[in-house]
# Entry
Amino acid sequence: MNKYSSWLLALVAVMSIAWVPFHNSESTRPRTTAVTPCVADSNYQRLAFWVGDWEVVDSVGTHYATQRVHAVLEACAITAEWSSGGGYKGMGLSAFDARTGEWRQMFIANQLPTPTGVELRKSDPLYRGPGVRFIPLLDPTTTQLKRSRVTIMPLGDHRALQLFEDSSDGGQTWHTVFKAEHRPGVITEP
# Structure
């Protein structure tokens, strides 16, 4: 063997010995998936129970609509797509705002009674129940007595409830406008 072949064989031997610890440590090291900040923070998870495909029924159990709710952006926000009879469709985007400590929601529909077709809401700071209660983003003036709120809360047996309420006396008393129970369902695309 010539001098260069010996050096080349020695270099290959050293490289293969040196490579073994790096190669083995990579393959035997358990892979961990980092938990995203929004998944780890319970504030962002207050509506996690709502994620799923739902059949929406009214207060007497009659099919009313379907709703598809997804966690998006690594569980930092939730989208909700609503579809009911007569071509009524709506979409909401809800997220926790860490700067204000409030949930925010934007709901857009193709048939809302408002001129803009967009509703902007924030979480009600007085609500202490499960889920989130949304009220209008802008606080009403003292002369405006009409109020509305939407509460999204978990029910047992993997069900959820959206409760729509109105007040005509500045929030002193409330009456139910619509009670939408969400039951797990399969949504088929038209």
